[in-house]
Amino acid sequence: MKQELVQKTLGAGLYEYGHHACPLAQKWEPFLTGGVQAEKLLVAYDNADYTFASLPLFTEEKALLLKGLGILREAFSVERVEIYLPESAPEEVKTAWAGEPGLPVVYGKVDVREVGSKDLLHHPETVANIARVQAGQEPMLYAQVAQDEQEKTLCLPLESTVGKFVKAAGFAIAEGAVVAGGYFGRMLAPGQLNQPLYGLSNCRIELYPGSFCAVSFAQKASAHAAAESCGRCTFCREGNYQISRFLKSAVTGRGAEEDTAWLRSLSEAVGEESVCSFGQESVRFLRDALVSESKSFDAHIKGKRCDAGVCQAFTDYAVDGSLCVGCDKCRQACRYGAIEDGPGFIHRIDVFDCAKCGECAAVCPEKAIYRVRVGRLIGPTKATKVGRFRTSRKQY
Ligand code: SF4
Ligand code: SF4
Ligand code: SF4
Q1: Architecture of the domain whose range is 214-301
Q2: 237 CA closest ligand 1 atom index
Q3: Which of 101, 103, 99, 119 is nearest to 111 (CA)?
Q4: 233 lines ligand 1 (CB under 6 A)
Q5: What is the pLDDT of residues 307-358, one digit of tens each?
């Protein structure tokens, strides 16, 4: 073992990146002081990572990754190396690594049961940072920042906070919610962005500047987990399927009072009994939200309402009668014939014909169409000329 290589890396205080973040000194302890000779070096994303924010490492910074691999091989005198890449990796990544001598590439997830105590398993970000540190450079971190349809990938110094990534991406958020880690992440309030992104699950930051419903987000996360589980562990496979069914009931107004207790025990079991980071992290958001957003779960399951106005089952589209100028654009855009009255009249939506597609709200130049709580009126009940209806503007 090349002590100088190891000591220079440890001296920089580097952490293993990803869902199982820990100091490299801790991760390497069996090899450094326990007398274990490393047999294989595996480079792979966490199984729970579905964003692969740092894939540019495999193309734009391939030389850096190769250097990091060389350092690890030399430092731990390890001959065998395997690189795991996502099946969804772009062609340019696959082409860049095809036929690289001595570096076989496997496409897919690592089967953690096959990883032995003599195997060194590192995230690509960690390998790149080992190379940076040896070259006297600052460790870096890739992250995706997404809002609505926009998504940006950035690479900033490792210790950068969530807020710094958001700002560097050109976004800003004053109210709403931020989810650090995507489906397997944590919900933060806009005032909590002053913490390092590093270690907060995978590096995807999602911004929800308007309304955010934790129950709806948890439902999408569980549906993703149920669809993407490899199926080897019963709790991950069946548990996530059952969780997604309970949550689907909650967001569609069919939840039963005992469902919250089921969600608690199922999410605990999935988190504790799954063998890899995918199953363990798949319930992270739900477990946190069941505590921090318990009122929202009660509102959906017991109260049959979504206070954020996000879940379609509990909302209708409606025209604010005080804002409508009768331009008729919404009626022309509606494919379901659900909008009444013509030019010059305040338009009204027939909730029985409305398919809740949102097209009308998207085309309204006055931003007069909102989602409102089922049954709430914000416009006239009969044909009314523009300007003849006054009310305070209420979104929900
Ligand atoms: S936890 Fe889920 S993804 Fe991981 S091995 Fe088990 S079934 Fe597969
Ligand atoms: S939400 Fe869709 S279906 Fe409903 S009124 Fe608007 S355009 Fe028509
Ligand atoms: S598009 Fe907007 S302003 Fe125009 S008629 Fe419809 S609700 Fe009124």
Answers
A1: Up-down Bundle (1.20)
A2: 7
A3: 119
A4: yes
A5: 888 898 998 999 999 999 999 999 999 999 999 999 999 999 999 999 999 9
Kindly provide the b/e burial profile for residues 294-314, where b requires at least 16 CB atoms within 10 angstroms of the residue's own CB: eebbebbbeeebbbbbbbbeb
Asked whether residue 395 carries a pLDDT value surpassing 70, the answer given is no
Helix ranges restricted to H, 33-123: 62-76, 91-97
Nearest CA to ligand 1 atom 8: 230
With a Cβ cut-off of 6 Å, ligand 2 is lined by 317, 333-334, 336, 338-339, 349, 354-360
| Residues 6 or more apart whose Cβ sits within 8 Å of residue 59 | 92, 93, 96
How high is the pLDDT of residue 1?
53
Query: Given the CA of residue 369, which atom of ligand 3 is nearest to it?
Result: 7
Confidence of residue 374 (pLDDT cuts 50, 70, 90): confident
Strands 369-373 and 315-319: antiparallel
* Most informative mutation of 276, 280, 283 for ligand 1 (most atoms within 8 A of CB): 276
Residue 228 Cα: closest atom of ligand 1: 3
List pLDDT tens digits, range 125-160. 999 999 999 999 999 999 999 998 899 999 999 989
Q: Which amino acid type is present at position 313?
A: A
Query: pTM of the predicted model, to two decimals?
Result: 0.84
CATH of 3-134, one of 2.130.10.10, 3.40.50.300, 3.40.50.11540, 3.90.1150.10: 3.40.50.11540
Domain 140-208 part of CATH 3.10.20.600? yes
Q: Count the alpha carbons within 13 Å of 44 in the hemisphere toward its beta carbon.
A: 26
Q: Is 110 in the pocket of ligand 1 (CB under 6 A)?
A: no
Q: What percent of the chain has pLDDT over 90?
A: 68
CA distance 357 to 372: 14
Percentages (nearest 5) of helix, strand, coil residues in the chain:
40, 15, 45
Residue nearest atom 2 in ligand 2 by C-alpha distance: 357
Ranges 1-15, 59-73, 212-226: which has the least confidence: 1-15
pLDDT at 111 over 90: no
